[in-house]
Amino acid sequence: MTISYIGIGSNLAQPIEQVKQAIENLADLPETSLLDASSLYASKPQGPQDQPDFVNAVAKVETQLSSLALLAALQQQELAQGKIKKRHWGERLIDLDIILFGDEVINLPELQIPHLEMVNRDFVLLPLQQIAPGIQIPNQANITTLIERLPEQFIFPIENLVNSPK
Question: How confident is the model at residue 163 (pLDDT cuts 50, 70, 90)?
């Protein structure tokens, strides 16, 4: 069994509901158990700014699948949920990325783990820290150090939207 962390994002068609549905669907993956999921976070787009803000989360799963089999299962889940990808770093209905797969380092054309951009993305690091405090990122630093290195943070928990004064 391997512990894997999945980054989840959406900014189309009720993104909060899309992310919640994706988390629920992870429990249905073959030979995989959903162990935990972070809170939902809102974030500004990393790519083109003429698109809605994103909703992001990170889920922790335990799987007997290989990394490539997990990738294929996640891609099937994206398609089943109606994935739409209009442009690079653009808006999307749902996006599921393997950000960590045990302590493995994988460098294949179709899969790079740790996820190549995770160390620069607050919308990955902060939710990951919530469910895996102190985790060591292979070939990097621990999560706390990586967060401290971020030049800025652009995300905030979704609850802040609900509880913020009008």
Answer: very low
